[in-house]
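Bench notes, afternoon.
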Amino acid sequence: MSRVKRECEVPPDGSQQWFGIDTTSSRLGHTKPIETIAMARILVIDDDADQAAALSSRLLEAGFEVFAAASGREGLRTAHDKRPDLMLVDAGLRDVAGTEVCRSIRSDASLRALPIIMMSESDDEIDRVVGFEVGADDFVTKPFSHRELLLRIRAILRRRKRGDDAGTSGGAVAGLQLDPAAHRVSVNGEEVVLSALEFKLLTTLHRRRNRVQTRGSLLEEVWGGGDGVSVRTVDACIKRLRQKLGSAGQLIQTVRGVGYRFVAADEMSAAS
C-alpha cells in the first residue's frame, strides 16, 4: 500500500497540503528516493504557490516527507500538529512575518528545538543578522539553488542528529547546567529557552572550554560554513546568547581580534 497522497500544489485558500513519498512505485516520473536522514519531515511555509510547489516537489524527489502551508498562521498550526524535523519559512509572508513565525516557534517550549531555515528575497546582511537573532538556523536568499538548499538541510539535520546522539551531560558550571540529550539548559535552576542554533553554539563552546574558538571555526562548526554567513552573524548570536544566559553569560569571554572562549568559573579571573 502506498504511503502517499501526492499533489504538488498549494491550495489557493491557504489550507494545509500534505506531501509524501511513494515508496511503492516510480510513477509521476520519480524514481525511488534514497533514504534521507530517516525520512525527515520538512514543513514549507510560503505564500507563493508556484515557488512552494516547486520546492516541495524537489524535496519529495530528494526523499523527504513534506508538509506545506500557504500562510504563517497555517504554518504554525501545522508545526504543532505534524511536528516536523525542519521548517523552511519565507520571511515575506503576508499575514505574519517570517521573523514573527520564528519568534513564535522559539517561544514554544515544545517546538523550540525545531531547526528553521529562513528564505528571503533580500540579500542585505542586516536581514540575515535579524533572521539569526530571532532564532533561524540558516538563511537563504531567493532565488536559490535547490541543490544548495538540500545540502544545507542535510547538514542541519546531521548536526542535530549528532547533538541528539551525543547524550553527554555538560554538568554545572557557575550555575549553568547543560543537558544536550534533552536539549535543556538552566541557570541557577531556572530553565533558559534557546533556539537550536544558540544551543549548538553554547554546547560547542562548552565542549571546548578554556580553548579559544575563532569566529571562522565557529562559523564552520555551528553554521556549516555556508555562504552568506559572516563573522558579524557570530557576534550577534553570541550577544543574544549572553543576554539569555544572564549571570552565566560572563562565562563566554571575548578574545579581542580572534573569537570567543568558554571559561570555567574558577578560571575567570585568570582568563580576564
